[in-house]
């Protein structure tokens, strides 16, 4: 979900369109313009069908966005930070930076989305029922759009209540298990396994549809099933990782002997005398005992090769104030999130405006592997 186009903010939450969203937007619009409206309203002109298709698609994805916004607003109210909302090919996703603290928090957050979709479906269906089936084009135009949006929002609300994690219904189910047993791991494992089974059923249903010449629906069913199975398995693995890292801090695994380099050093000398000689991928840049920034192999790669002998490290480094960093007492879960969310391989550990160490992604993964081997099966 990193790639995408920012479309602004709502309630302080960053909103993005993933590049895959344009595919589904085009497909939905094409289906409405080329199939649904021509069959349902054959008397319409081509311009009316195109206008209705575009407006319906925009309102539909607006409904999906509103669904995700309700999740996020409730989450923020419960103290769970939300990094943003991204619309992509299979709908929308709220990017939480933490998990709910209690079963009650999760229930409220999870039920908000389907509840919103069902309410929207009821509103649109109410508009359609109030207008009836008018013959006048302007009213018929509104009635037709409301009818489709009413049906699709009700379907979206019901679909999301399927008790397969990480669908909203799966999160509701997990929250109930969590509340009943008091064991988050056990609740997550059960909900995830059900989610995987539902995913496999969707895949099998998709294969059946494909073999009965219903290619388009078959491919969509299989794609949704694959997404559900992968997301369910990944969600459980993520919880295990969080448990393995819980209670441990950056200072436990950071590299302390950080060799510094001068900002006036040429990039060619940096590569030959430091990177290749030591095998390290990043170096603090220091002058007069004061750290000015950090230079990494990725920074070097952005400089044209024929300029390495003249360009100083100062021109390639990332200044200290722009660095993504952590503190020595930062929880390793936070460190891992910093690495993954910013797509970086190492992060400096800063205390009192000085780099006191480095934490590499490999160090975190090695720590996870060792903890997993020593811990055995996770507690339920």
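-> sequence recovered:
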């Amino acid at each position: 979900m990193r790639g995408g186009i920012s479309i602004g903010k709502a309630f302080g939450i960053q909103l993005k369109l993933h590049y895959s969203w344009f595919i589904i937007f085009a497909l939905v619009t094409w289906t409405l313009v080329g199939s649904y409206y021509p069959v349902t309203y054959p008397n319409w002109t081509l311009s009316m069908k195109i206008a209705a298709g575009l407006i319906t698609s925009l309102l539909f994805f607006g409904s999906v966005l509103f669904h995700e916004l309700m999740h996020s607003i409730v989450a923020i109210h419960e103290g769970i930070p939300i990094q943003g909302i991204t619309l992509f090919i299979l709908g929308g996703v709220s990017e939480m930076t933490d998990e709910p603290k209690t079963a009650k928090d999760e229930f409220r957050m999870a039920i908000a989305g389907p509840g919103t979709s069902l309410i929207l479906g009821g509103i649109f269906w109410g508009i359609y029922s109030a207008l009836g089936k008018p013959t006048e084009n302007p009213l018929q135009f509104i009635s037709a759009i409301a009818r489709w949006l009413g049906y699709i929002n009700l379907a979206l609300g019901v679909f999301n209540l399927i008790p397969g994690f990480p669908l909203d219904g799966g999160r509701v189910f997990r929250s109930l298990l969590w509340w009943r047993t008091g064991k988050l791991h056990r609740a997550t494992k059960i909900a995830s396994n059900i989610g995987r089974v539902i995913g496999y059923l969707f895949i099998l249903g998709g294969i059946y549809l494909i073999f009965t010449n219903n290619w388009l629906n078959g491919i969509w069913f299989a794609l949704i099933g694959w997404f559900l199975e992968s997301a369910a398995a990944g969600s459980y693995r993520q919880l295990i990782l969080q448990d393995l890292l819980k209670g441990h801090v950056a200072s436990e695994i950071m590299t302390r002997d950080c060799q510094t380099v001068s900002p006036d050093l040429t990039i060619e000398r940096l590569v030959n005398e430091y990177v290749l000689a030591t095998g390290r991928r990043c170096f603090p840049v220091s002058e007069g005992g004061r750290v000015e920034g950090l230079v990494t192999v990725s920074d070097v790669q952005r400089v044209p090769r024929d300029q390495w002998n003249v360009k100083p490290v100062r021109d390639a480094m990332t200044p200290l104030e722009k660095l993504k960093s952590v503190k020595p007492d930062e929880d390793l879960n936070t460190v891992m999130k910093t690495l993954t969310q910013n797509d970086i391989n190492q992060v400096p550990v800063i205390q009192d405006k000085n780099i006191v160490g480095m934490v590499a992604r490999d160090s975190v993964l090695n720590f996870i592997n060792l903890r997993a081997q020593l811990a055995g099966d996770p507690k339920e």
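The chain has twelve helices and nine strands.
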